[in-house]
Amino acid sequence: DIQMTQSPSSLSASVGDRVTIACQASQDIGNYLNWYQQKPGKAPNLLIYDASNVETGVPSRFSGSGSGTDFTLTINSLQPEDIATYYCQQYDSVPPLTFGGGTKVEIK
Amino acid sequence: QVQLQESGPGLVKPSQTLSLTCTVSGGSISSSGYYWSWIRQHPGKGLEWIGYIYLSGYTYYNPSLKSLPTISLDTSKNQFSLKLSSVTAADTAVYYCATYHLGFFDNWGQGTLVTVSS
User: Fold this and answer.
1) Chain A partners of B113 at a C-beta cutoff of 8 Å?
2) d(CA B64, CA B61)
3) Residue A3 neighbours by CB distance under 10 Å
4) Is residue A78 scored above 90 in pLDDT?
5) Does the structure show a pLDDT above 90 at B114?
6) Which chain A residues touch B if contact means CB-CB below 8 Å?
């Protein structure tokens, strides 16, 4: 199975800060990497697909980058509504589809 | 926009079978290209893919699951279902149904909490 490791597991930042979340795959997955946002008590919501493509309707402050084993989700200018847990997910090697452990983002 | 809604018992006894149904609206479960999926989330933890089914009946399951899952389609009702046999407390989780398309999960149900307890 491909293991997905996210870092940090949690972070606290101020409104307007640039936030970066890392996701590392245990083997090369090309660009087969997606990012989701999960707000408390809600289902996850797709933000970024294929490493860098922003899903329709997602604010432009969200961006994704990377390929191979190292990926990054960036939130430019953190907003209060971005408080959530963020997950990466690989689909290069199935089964199983695997998710990272999550990064919880809080406002300082 | 496809909408999904999970339903089923919120409490299951250990060693019994967990049964959930996902009702699809706003689209047909017979649509090609979509895999009808189940994902779960243990309390306070991350996401775990359980498996999915395609229209042809082809299924893929997570081999790491200790409780054996079975996913099935009911095209006449526009529903798909999950059965998890011989459950234990470790199967207590929020269960989500979702559509898997082109590598990502693009539509999710709201989730339903299932507690395994005697």
Assistant:
1) none
2) 9
3) 12
4) yes
5) yes
6) 1, 32, 34, 36, 42-46, 49-50, 55, 87, 89, 91, 94-102
Contact between chains at B49 and A43 (C-beta distance less than 8 A): no
Q: What is the pLDDT of residue B23?
A: 98
Mean per-residue pLDDT, B96-115? 97
Asked if residue A30 has pLDDT above 90, the reply is yes
The helix/strand/coil state of B8 is coil
B111 contacts in chain A (CB < 8 Å): 43
User: pLDDT value at position B55?
Assistant: 92
Which of B49, B64, B108 lies at the smallest CB-CB distance from A43? B108
On the 0-12 / 13-18 / 19+ scale of CB atoms within 10 A, A85 is buried
Copy the structure tokens of residue A67: 């390929």
Could you give the dihedral angle defined by the CA atoms of residues B33, B52, B95 and B23, in that order, rounded to the nearest 10 degrees?
50
Cβ pair B63:A95 closer than 8 A: yes
Among B104, B109, B110, select the one facing A34 at the smallest CB separation: B104
Q: Do A100 and B64 touch (CB under 8 A)?
A: no
The token duo for B1 is: 């926009």
Per-residue model confidence (pLDDT) at position A34: 98
Residue A92 has pLDDT above 90, yes or no: yes
